[in-house]
Design goal:
The protein is an alpha+beta fold. It contains 9 helices and 16 strands. It is about 20% helix and about 25% strand. α8 crosses α9 (about 365-370). InterPro entries: TrmE/GcvT-like, YgfZ/GCV_T_CS, YgfZ/GcvT.
Length: about 375
């Protein structure tokens, strides 16, 4: 349990839920955004397993929630982000990316519209740069940008309904479409988190730490910027980012111009990304645990980069990894430290179900083929 009175950095955020019995922060160094909230409450695998039978409440109040209002809020966000937001309805929820001019991912936010207000939340280490970017892009738009004191509670599993009084108190209740367990994000003032959790527990929910959420996030193939992506990452490397059919993802493929759109359009219409984010199963008998940023190799050749590593209640140690497409079916991969740490190599295998079978029609490539064949089908 963390003691806020003796914390070496009193300015950093510490959730009030850290004072709950058994609550413990993750003590290991990690690129995953974990600081300030409970990693578990004493039974991390059991906390995840409970998702199958009840609703598990996870404290994600360390994330930073930004509020965007004003007459031009929708068109402003639509212009600067990869998601189509100019005409979405109240309650719309999706992801959104900020890209550089070459289409590389700079920020990844979750978005929800509540009336005429938009809320965007990001990992704590992304908050300052993302807020600064949005502020600089406002120019003369009728837009106001505010950093809130809202804290997120993520509810995994749909066995328990959110009591009406609590839902009315929340800034928003966001239902998230992803491949993991049924998920709702509840935004409350940080000062009301304890009371909100007590209300949910009284309704039949149970507490789970961020480790349980992280395992579900990895299974859902959703990256966290600092841990899972690098300076070269582009949206198509993460299939879950690309909006297809009824899935909004974080990138709308037919919306108007935004920074980095050229790269998105080129990959979508002409080819495939050279790398792909996949789920990895790690050797559970290894004496050491790899960390995000470690190297993935095959027969001594570097083929990728390891991301978030977590223990799952069903699969044991799993991870996200960005892997060259040429190595996706190469066989057993080897994880080695990216730094000079004296950690033993660990074997890993790609989960075949995490390799997408449909990445969209390559209309541009088909057009090129027809031109080269003289227009013949």
């Amino acid at each position: 349990m963390s003691d806020t009175s003796t914390d070496v950095n009193p300015d950093r955020y510490l959730s009030p839920l850290l004072q709950r019995p058994g609550a413990a922060e993750l003590q290991d160094d990690t690129a995953v955004d974990t600081a300030g909230v409970p990693w578990h409450y004493g039974d991390p695998l059991g906390e995840q397993r409970a998702i199958a039978s009840t609703t598990v409440v996870v404290d994600r109040s360390h994330r930073v929630v930004l509020k965007v209002t004003g007459d031009d809020a929708a068109t402003f966000l639509n212009t600067v982000l990869s998601q189509k937001l100019d005409d979405v309805e109240d309650g719309f929820a999706a992801g959104a990316l900020d890209l550089d001019i070459q289409g590389r991912i700079l920020h990844h936010a979750d978005v929800v519209r509540v009336g005429e207000t938009f809320y965007l939340d990001v990992p704590s280490d992304q908050a300052d740069s993302f807020q600064d970017f949005l502020s600089k892009m406002i120019f003369w738009s009728a837009v106001e940008l505010e950093r809130t004191e809202l804290g997120l509670l993520t509810l995994l599993g749909d066995a328990v309904e959110i009591p009406a009084d609590l839902a009315a108190e929340a800034a928003f209740v966001r239902r998230v479409d992803w491949q993991g367990a049924a998920r709702r994000d509840l935004a409350l003032e940080r000062g009301a988190l304890n009371e909100g959790v007590d209300t949910l527990l009284a309704a039949g929910a149970s507490l789970g730490g961020l480790m349980a959420y992280t395992a579900e996030r990895v299974r859902a193939l959703i990256p966290e910027k600092a841990a899972d992506l690098d300076a070269k990452s582009i949206p198509h490397e993460v299939p879950e980012f690309i909006g297809r059919g009824e899935r909004h993802g974080a990138v709308h493929l037919t919306k108007g111009c935004y920074r980095g759109q050229e790269t998105v359009a080129r990959v979508e219409n002409l080819g495939r990304s050279p790398r792909l984010m996949v789920l990895l199963h790690l050797d559970g008998s290894a004496p050491t645990t790899p960390v995000a940023g470690d190297t993935l190799s095959f027969n001594g050749r570097t083929v990728g980069r390891l991301g978030t590593v977590v223990h799952d209640c069903d699969f044991g140690p799993i991870a996200l990894g960005v892997v060259k497409r040429s190595a996706l079916d190469a066989g057993e991969l080897t994880i080695t430290p990216a730094d000079d740490a004296e950690r033993a190599p660990v074997a890993a295998s790609v989960d075949p179900d995490s390799i997408p079978t449909d990445e969209g029609d390559k209309a541009g490539r088909e057009a090129i083929k027809r031109l080269r064949s003289g227009g013949e089908e």
